[in-house]
Amino acid sequence: MRKIFILMLLAGVFLNVLVVSAESVPTADRNLIFTDGTAEVIGKNDSVRIFIAVVTEGQSLEMVSAANMDITGKVLLAVKSLNIKGLTLKTMDYRVIPQRDYKAKPPEIKGYEVHNGVAVILEGFAPDQLSMHASTVVAKALENGANNIHSINFYIKDKTLLENKALARATRQAITRAETLAKAAGVKLKRIVSLSTYPAHKPPVPNMFRSAGIQVKTEAMAPPMESGESRIRVQVSLVYEIE
Question: Residue 198 is part of which domain span?
Fold first, then answer.
């Protein structure tokens, strides 16, 4: 009786395996067409990050730190006084770097460098307005003691609409390619069995501007700027089953 039960159980398992195998045909056993599509869209930048730094040097860490704090405070106050709606400030980098005299044995600390970096962020502006504000911020910061503008990076705050547009174009391209292949091969497209995307953002080349800390007129310190454009590129991979 026990042997009969075991045989019936094994038979049932074997039957289930056959049913599952019949319902899910492995990809390797299907006739497939693989295609892809690529699209790139361009949008005008509406935002900018300006990385400003105040760098001070001296023999006494206490005096160097105090001087840096004083100048940085003036720079931040001056930038805030522009009253640009939506402008935000964020400390990004604060460093104290000992300056060593390596000729001495052993090397001695001969002074200190204090580096205080702040990001000025402006988002959601029209291109001309954004360029004007960026130029004004740089001029105001330099006028009030900032001695290093690390970088000025223009970008698009929300890329969703552009990404969706690029995805739609890339998908249509992939489908068109599949239809062309199927027609040329004399087969019919049955259904899509796989669809995937690989976004690849191309950030704009940052506009770089550096100051040597020379005291000049404010008008001369306001470099003309163009907010420019950003490119968004996506790739779509498509797999069709054919008959």
Answer: 31-44+158-204+226-243
54-111 tens-digit pLDDT: 999 999 999 999 999 999 999 999 999 999 999 999 999 999 999 998 888 888 899 9
Whether 220 is in a domain gets the answer no
Number of folded domains that form the chain: 2
Q: Give the CATH number of the domain where residue 242 resides.
A: 3.30.110.170
Enter the tokens of residue 206: 């940052």
CA atoms within 13 A on the CB side of 57: 7
Please report the DSSP string for the chain in residue order: -HHHHHHHHHHHHHHHHHHHHHHS--GGGS-EEEEEEEEEEEEE--EEEEEEEEEEEES-HHHHHHHHHHHHHHHHHHHHTT--TT-EEEEEEEEEEEEEETTSSS-EEEEEEEEEEEEEEEES--HHHHHHHHHHHHHHHHHTT--EEEEEEEE-S--HHHHHHHHHHHHHHHHHHHHHHHHHHT--EEEEEEEEEEEEEEPPPPB----------HHHH-------EEEEEEEEEEEEEE-
Q: What's the whole-model pTM score? A: 0.74
**Domain membership flag for residue 195:** yes
Q: Are residues 35 and 97 in the same domain?
A: no
In 3D space, the residue among 155, 135, 102, 96 whose CA is nearest the CA of residue 221 turns out to be 135
